[in-house]
Amino acid sequence: MHCPFCRNPDSRVIDSRTSDDGLSIRRRRQCPQCGKRFSTIETSSLNVIKRSGAVEPFSRDKVMAGVRKACQGRPVTDADLALLAQKVEEAVRQTGLSQIDANEIGLATLGPLRELDEVAYLRYASVYQAFESLEDFEAAIADLRADHAGRPGGDVPAEA
């Protein structure tokens, strides 16, 4: 790390602290040459490999935009979408990879979206799981019903 005052190519870390969200580290540094102190904020980079082969930085906004389409007409707020995007980013970062396929991000979105809104989940899953027939939708709905039946007080009426 170059000193911003004298451009010395070396510095000494005095203190390190993790940010509240756990996604960055703030380091207090001191230059051994001029003695001045400065802070750095370090984050790990996460890149997305698109279908075309292009690589771009991960964006929570893009996750939100993709899910927003599936949530049209549903009782889902922007705050709900922001929380969902945060959960997706945390799940993707936990893989430890610095580059991840765009399709993997879509698949990582399914779990949090299922918890948020089941209709939006079905819309989104129909794209990312490549539903090709009515049977694919029926299987996904049966899966949702089985989840409800397994929860305490989660009986789903047969007509639902």
Automatic annotation (TrEMBL):
It holds the Pfam family ATP-cone. Its cofactor is Zn(2+). Keywords: ATP-binding, DNA-binding, Metal-binding, Nucleotide-binding, Repressor, Transcription, Transcription regulation, Zinc, Zinc-finger. GO terms for molecular function: ATP binding; DNA binding; zinc ion binding. A zinc finger (unnamed) spans 3-34. One of its GO terms (biological process) is negative regulation of DNA-templated transcription. Binds 1 zinc ion. PANTHER family: TRANSCRIPTIONAL REPRESSOR NRDR. Belongs to the NrdR family. Negatively regulates transcription of bacterial ribonucleotide reductase nrd genes and operons by binding to NrdR-boxes. This is Transcriptional repressor NrdR. It comes from Microbacterium sediminis. The lineage of its organism: Bacteria, Bacillati, Actinomycetota, Actinomycetes, Micrococcales.
